[in-house]
TrEMBL record:
Pfam family, one: VWC
GO biological process: cellular response to virus
InterPro entries: vWF_C/EGF_Fibrillin, VWF_dom
Domain VWFC: 1-53, 53-114, 111-172, 178-238
Gene3D superfamilies to which the protein is assigned, alphabetical: 6.20.200.20, Complement Module, domain 1
Compartment list: Secreted
Entry keywords, A to Z: Glycoprotein, Secreted, Signal
Main location: secreted
Designated name of the protein: VWCE protein
Length: 269
C-alpha cells in the first residue's frame, strides 16, 4: 500500500485485520477479540473489539457500576459490573405482608391497623384526638406513637416561647439594639455615632444592627520633613518643616545643627 514496514512490524488494517511483515511478505488475518464478559459494549469508533468497561443490556448502554431496573421486569434491580449484568428480584411472602411492599411487586397486601374504633391503611400517619403533638403511624397492623420531635434551640431560656396550638418552643426575636458596645467597661455609642478609637487615622460608626464598622484613612500627600499635628491623621506638608525636632516655617532660614557653617532653608514643594 505504498508504505515501508520493518521486519516483524505489526499493524491493523481497515476492516479489523491484523497484519505483520515477515521475510518480505505481508501476512494478514482477522483480529481476534476474546471477550471475558457477558454483556460487552460494542467496539468504539475506530476500534475492533467490544469493551467490558460497561454493559449493553436490552439494547441500552450502561456505565460501569450503574444500578437500574429493566422496563418490563417488575421490581427487579440490576447492576453492571465489568461488562456483566447481575439482577435480583424481591421475595414475596404469601398472604398478608408483614411490611410494606409495592403492589406491582407482590400480590400480598400489608395488614391494616384498627385503633380506637378506626381503621388505618399501612403507612398512614395520624394524630390522637385533641393531641396534635403525638404522631402515630400504622406499620403492618401495629400502631406506633411518638411525640413530635422538637428542634434544638440556641436561645436562652427567657427568650423561649410556646404559642397556642404549638407543640415545640420557639425563640422570640431579640430586642432591637439601641446602640453599640465597644469595650468591656460597657461604653455604648448610639446608632449613627462616629468616633476615633485612639488612632486619628481610623474612624468607626455604630451601625443600625448594633455592629461597629471601622475604616482607615490613607494619607496621599507626603514630604520628607512634614509637620505632625497632635490628633490629626495625616502630616502637614504645607505649613512648614520639622527638622531635628524643631519646627520651621516656610522660607525660614536656620543654621544646621550638624554643621554651623551650613545654612538651611525650609521650602514647600
Amino acid at each position: 500500500r505504498g508504505a515501508a514496514r520493518e521486519p516483524g512490524a505489526r499493524w491493523t488494517e481497515p476492516g479489523c485485520r491484523s497484519c505483520t511483515c515477515q521475510g518480505g511478505r505481508v501476512l494478514c488475518e482477522a483480529v481476534s477479540c476474546p471477550v471475558a464478559c457477558s454483556h460487552p459494549l460494542p467496539a468504539p469508533a475506530g476500534g475492533c473489539c467490544p469493551s467490558c468497561e460497561g454493559c449493553l443490556h436490552e439494547g441500552v448502554a450502561r456505565a460501569e457500576g450503574d444500578v437500574f431496573s429493566p422496563s418490563d421486569w417488575n421490581c427487579t434491580v440490576c447492576v453492571c459490573l465489568a461488562g456483566n449484568v447481575s439482577c435480583i428480584s424481591p421475595e414475596c411472602p404469601p398472604g398478608s405482608c408483614p411490611s410494606a411492599s409495592p403492589a406491582d411487586c407482590c400480590s400480598c397486601q400489608p395488614a391494616k391497623c384498627s385503633f380506637r374504633g378506626r381503621t388505618y391503611a399501612h403507612g398512614a400517619r395520624f394524630s390522637l384526638d385533641g393531641d396534635d403533638c403525638t404522631i402515630c403511624v400504622c406499620r403492618g397492623g401495629e400502631v406506633e406513637c411518638s411525640f413530635a420531635p422538637c428542634p434544638v434551640l440556641d436561645c436562652p431560656q427567657h427568650q423561649r416561647h410556646l404559642g397556642p396550638g404549638q407543640c415545640c418552643f420557639t425563640c422570640r426575636d431579640p430586642p432591637a439594639p439601641a446602640g453599640c458596645f465597644v469595650d468591656d467597661n460597657g461604653v455604648e455609642f448610639p446608632i449613627g455615632q462616629i468616633w476615633s478609637p485612639g488612632d486619628p487615622c481610623e474612624l468607626c460608626i455604630c451601625q443600625a444592627d448594633g455592629s461597629v464598622s471601622c475604616k482607615r484613612t490613607d494619607c496621599v500627600e507626603t514630604c520628607p520633613y512634614p509637620i505632625r499635628i497632635p490628633g490629626q491623621c495625616c502630616p502637614d506638608c504645607s505649613a512648614g518643616c520639622t527638622y531635628m525636632g524643631r519646627i520651621f516655617y516656610n522660607n525660614e532660614t536656620f543654621p544646621s545643627v550638624l554643621d554651623p557653617c551650613l545654612s538651611c532653608i525650609c521650602l514647600v514643594r
